[in-house]
Amino acid sequence: MALHVGILKGNGIGLEITKATQRVLEATGVLFKWEDIPIAEEGIAAYGHPLAPQTVQRLREIGVNIKAPLIVNKLEGRITCVQPDGSELTYPSLNNAVRRELGLFVNPRPIRGFPGVSGRHEVMDLVVMREVTEDIYIGHEHKIGDDIAAEAIKLTTRAAATRVAKYSFDYARKLCRKRVTCLHKANVLNYTDGLFLRCFYEVAASYPEIQADDMMIDAACYTVVKDPARFDVICTANQYGDIFSDLAAGLAGSLGLAPGSNIGDGVAVFEASHGAAPDIAGKGIANPLALILSGAELLDYVGKQKEATAVRNAIRTVIESKTNLTPDLGGTGSTESLTDAVATEVMKLVM
């Protein structure tokens, strides 16, 4: 039976890297049934809204989805979605709306170094577990006076902090990871980050075989630059996870090497950690590897570990060969040539 996967093509470079991802995943020999789901401009054309209830419902029904990047402009982007009971909820961005409308609560972002492009950070092999329902990114903010000041709320609840900590330790146990580190700023944010940290250690007590520790977010940014092998699994709040994972991806060599997924109860959306890069859209030089690696995460999620490993190993082989790499990786290749090279290696590995 074919694996049914929903596709959100996004915008910017989204269409280019989505096609590349589909090609490489098909090269594993897994049969796919792809279904395009309208979002953003396509959602407006189809339903009169960038994230209509029909889109949300279909994503839930399919359960396994790939999302290409969506453009989020500075100083704008708030979106209001109608709920089943007729009420409305407003989110700070379309990306945020997708996660929260679907009840996705954790954004795992595995970052690995690659010989040839990562320098001394080729030893890096960490996974950031980013809680995505709360924190400052929840978008609860308001203006004070006539452009005099503005205020935002940083929300932390025991339920959400405990849930992401448990997911982090369960992941570490399942994949035989040795350490889970909580990143925070509890020395300043005693109540919010303090609660997150307390919940982390309460959960850690049920996993005695896994080392649990914590680090201030600023110290962690310094440490990952100096000693990338220090980290294994990282559990952290929304904003810290977003920033830290981008830093780690830069150390690996490119945001184009940073996959991601968003996991909820019975539904998941797999996406690259980078943005839509409208400045290079249509030029044929976009790096598709982050979304392809997100596709490997999808294969793991549905129990296709052999095929997922083939995709990752194929990418490593192509990067180490230093041929067909896109400009962000120091090469002169194109999206198409890089995709061809990876798909060819995948087929060799699964034969």
What does this structure look like?
The structure is a single chain. This protein folds into two domains: 1-104 and 258-351, Isopropylmalate Dehydrogenase (3-Layer(aba) Sandwich); 118-252, Isopropylmalate Dehydrogenase. 40% of the residues lie in helices and 20% in strands. It is built from eleven helices and 14 strands. It has helices at residues 14-27, 40-47, 53-62, 94-101, 158-174, 192-204, 217-226, 238-252, 289-301, 305-321, 335-350; strands at 3-8, 32-36, 64-67, 79-82, 88-91, 106-112, 125-131, 141-144, 149-152, 179-184, 211-216, 233-236, 259-263, 268-272. A five-stranded mixed β-sheet has the order 2-1-3-14-13, with helices on both faces. Helix 1 links the parallel strand 1 and strand 2. The longest helix is centred in the middle third of the chain and has 17 residues, at 158-174. The mean pLDDT is 95.
Secondary structure topology:
Blueprint: E1 3-8, H1 14-27, E2 32-36, H2 40-47, H3 53-62, E3 64-67, E4 79-82, E5 88-91, H4 94-101, E6 106-112, E7 125-131, E8 141-144, E9 149-152, H5 158-174, E10 179-184, H6 192-204, E11 211-216, H7 217-226, E12 233-236, H8 238-252, E13 259-263, E14 268-272, H9 289-301, H10 305-321, H11 335-350
Parallel strand pairs: 1-2, 1-3, 3-14, 7-12, 10-11, 10-12
Antiparallel strand pairs: 4-5, 6-7, 8-9, 13-14
